Please model this.
Amino acid sequence: MTDFIIEARSVTKTYSPKGRDEVHALADVSFGVRPGEMVGLVGESGSGKTTLMRLLLGIEEPTSGSVFFKGTDRSKFNDAVRRDYFNSVSAVFQNPYSSLNPRRRLWDIITERRAIERRASRANRRERAAELLDQVALPQDFADRFPHQLSGGQRQRVAIARALCEDPDVIVLDEPMSALDVSVSAQISNLLLDLQHELGVSYIFVAHDMHMVRHMCHRTAVLLKGKIVEEGPVEAVLGAPQHQYTRSLIDASELRSLEPAVEG
Ligand SMILES: Nc1ncnc2c1ncn2[C@@H]1O[C@H](COP(=O)(O)OP(=O)(O)O)[C@@H](O)[C@H]1O
Ligand SMILES: [Mg+2]
Model:
């Protein structure tokens, strides 16, 4: 038995691009999230963070190892479990400019899962979109706008509303603030924390910034070249990092120059 909602067990992912060397994006990685937990995944660019999220989301298959949802191996899903997985695990990606279809209105974007899964009526979807716009603090009359009419921060709110549509258990947040400036980024992180308190949803929060993880997460893992080199409660990892790489990530985020030393 497992208490993880979603979990990768000993996953490996090797890419074999034509005419180029193989890329070992992930090597024997185990990582999961429990109900109500906010777990961080930190590492420099190219360390394999997005690859791991794509495996958890079912966008790609691991080369070896397995992904489990509520204790069931994804290769053994029946229709009911597949539907539950589809509704229970959602995502917000890094770039709010490319993640929203430019030809669709916001109500349509926000409730797209409902259209696929439940074949919901237009009236039902518009009503749900209004609730969700409210939840992410956007005006309800944004429902008929197109993505290009919004700022980056507003678009990321739309992406969050879309991720909330089917009352997920877990939201994968893949560097959701990295395309935003500092003040907008703070507003989005506060919104995410408020939603977590309100809804009890779990987050997997992917970042290269240790400071952000300290603000957002209970527990974190540190990924280096496709391997988890350190994992534990955020205070422990930040207060007494065991690995030189973790220390360098902390230094890079200038945590120590911004804040007094964290207690170990
Ligand atoms: N589709 C792909 N084909 C070939 N290599 C890939 C592909 N996707 C990712 N990679 C490689 O896998 C490694 C990990 O990438 P990624 O998971 O995007 O890292 P991160 O999100 O931490 O920046 C990188 O070396 C990247 O170039
Ligand atoms: Mg990435």
Remarks:
- Residues 6-258 form a domain with the Rossmann fold fold (CATH 3.40.50.300).
- The first strand starts at residue 6 and ends at 15.
